[in-house]
Amino acid sequence: xxxxxxxxxxxxxxxxxxxxxxxxxxxxxxxxxxxxxxxxxxxxxxxxxxxxxxxxxxxxxxxxxxxxxxxxxxxxxxxxxxxxxxxxxxxxxxxxxxxxxxxxxxxxxxxxxxxxxxxxxxxxxxxxxxxxxxxxxxxxxxxxxxxxxxxxxxxxxxxxx
Length: 161
Hints:
By secondary structure, this protein is mostly helical. The protein is built from five helices and no strands. α3 runs antiparallel to α4 (70-100).
């Protein structure tokens, strides 16, 4: 279920497609609620990130002083940490909220729909270090990574190895 509720999946936008809603079994009311939750999260995310950025700027201003006030710097570092924690907690809460907006069966079906769309757009997923068939392609001796023969500049004979 890695893709459901992950930031940036645009679950609300994905569920705008009536065909996908029908395939997954999501009601119009569920989709509307998800879109609203997504919108609320995005607004909060903008506020949280702006607050974090401002606190970091304030910290940099404190550090730029000829003789930085260590107590003020320490306090601002605490504020930056709290703001960063607020951003991350908001993201986790959003992911859990999006996950809970669908039933387990709907989440499973949505994952299948997403995988089918991804495969249609990009082809089958290739395992790391292998081919679509699941086995690594045999390589000729001396033809591993970085060992391809250099192409000589025009007008010069190939270098002998």
